[in-house]
Amino acid sequence: MSLIPLVAHLIRQAARDPEAAHDFHDAALASDKTRELAFADIEDRELAELNTSEWQWYASWRYEHGGDLNPTLIEHLTQAAMGRYSRFKLRRLILRDRPTNEFAESAGAGVHAGELPYGTQWLTAQVASAQRDQATELMEDALQCATEASWFLLNRLTSRSEYSAFITEELTEFADNRSVNQALRQRWGLQAR
After folding, report:
1. Which of 8, 9, 76, 120 has a 20 to 30 A CA-CA distance from 183?
2. Which pTM does this prediction carry?
3. Which residues contact 24 (CB under 8 A, 6 or more apart)?
């Protein structure tokens, strides 16, 4: 069992009040529980402890304190009925994840499918299931975050998506309007011009 049920009331307060968030951080630090909370193993039965916005706050706090992407939590947030800003916040967590970015930077050299970082698996699944408007959102969020994982996502969108041609056209227009260099265009999966 994780610490989540024990600190759920503190997370609820922290998600609503910046001063309570600061107090939460100080309490975790003072009790030497920051690492344990940042890497807490979340079980399905614990998801009822907090609402979606509170889990979103916790996921961000977890990331800021070096925590990993917990698949149970990420899948819960993915399935929740979220608005555009919440979807961006979730994608930003994935696109900034250290193991996902390290994998993207190394282009997966010597990594087998079962060894892919969770964030890479999640991004790949998002591309595979995306409808046209979702593919556009993924592209926009990748451009906003501008990380190695973002370039991995753009490459998947331009090469392995049902909407590859559409995304390639949109991305090419974006790159042309901003004079994006050829090396970066290639990282995104765009052909040399």
Report:
1. 120
2. 0.90
3. 7, 10, 11, 13, 14, 61
The answer, yes or no, to whether residue 66 has pLDDT greater than 80, is: yes
Of the candidates 82, 23, 31, 91, which has an alpha carbon nearest to the alpha carbon of residue 60? 91
C-alpha angle 90-124-167 in degrees, rounded to nearest 5: 90
At 50, list the tokens.
């907090």
Task: Give the chain's count of helices (H) and strands (E).
Answer: 12, 0
Average per-residue pLDDT for the chain: 91
Q: Tokens 């609820």 map to which residue?
A: 12
Buried/exposed code over 83-112 (b: 16+ C-beta within 10 A; e: otherwise): eeeebbbbbbbbbbbeebbebbeeeeeeee
Buried b (16+ CB within 10 A) or exposed e, 136-166: bbbbebbbebebbbbbbbbbbbbeebebbeb
Are residues 171 and 158 in contact, defined by beta-carbon separation less than 8 angstroms?
yes
